Amino acid sequence: MLFAAALFGLANTAGAESNSPAEPFSIVTSLPPLALAVQDLVNEAALADKVSVESIVPRGQSAHHHALKVSQLRSLKSAGIVVWVGPEMEQYLAKAIGQRRPENVVGFAALMQKPVVDYHLWLSAGAMTKLVTAVAEKLALAFPEANVLVAASTYNARLRQQTQAMQQRFAALPTEAGVLVFHESLHHLLTPLGIKQSASLVQVPEQQISVHTLMQAKSRMLPGQCLLADVEELPQAQPYAEKLGAPLVVVDLLASAATTKSYEAFLALLANKLATCFQSATGQDGSGQDGTSQDGE
């Protein structure tokens, strides 16, 4: 009876504030990496012909200071499920999402059992399994005939296997020196791989870097350390990499490349880029030894 009531409720809200019967069920996410994982789930559940997935922030565009368009507001209002990180990171979405029924919304940060300090949660495959499960539970109510929860379990098992393969890969590399980061955003990528972050130059991308901060970072540097920066930060990071005498390694934190077709491929690309920080010490090229897809390279 409880499941039937929940299903009836989701069907009603989907009809009232979501798609008409003639339209596909839509899932709107705030960022491209979230859309990749949700699309993976939809594909795994064989619902690609019935469910559309889109991102409010398009590929290749900055998520900072994003302004909602009227068409995007309509998409948020009509979506069967809305997926976002949360108001702490995406305040510009708070009003629009606050008008949606809670049962139609998945907040990534709200799924975490511990207080969140770094909101770049999509860089953690472990965190992403929680998001995939939460979306699957809602999607299963809309499509009870599909094995959505089984699909989520299968997909999450692959993400865990990929993480284990990445951990084994980096355990074999000389990562003891750790890395420098331009913007405090890589905790969820580095920590599961056992890679230390010796310093970050800025807490937020717009922050000005003082001479004191730069000197502190330089004093903490170890020989061979690289500076990691997002592709959006390249113009700002390049001069500081030169001042620090550190190799600059650019990563794509928002899956901006249109050739990246899945979340698994997104993780593989991040791992390959990160591995180049340590390749000079081994003579290896840092290419994928993690058993994952290299789509998008």
TrEMBL record:
Single biological process term from Gene Ontology: zinc ion transport
UniProt KW keywords: Ion transport, Signal, Transport, Zinc, Zinc transport
The protein, known as: High-affinity zinc uptake system protein ZnuA
Record has Zinc as a keyword: yes
Signal peptide, first to last residue: 1-16
Family: Belongs to the bacterial solute-binding protein 9 family.
GO molecular function, one term: metal ion binding
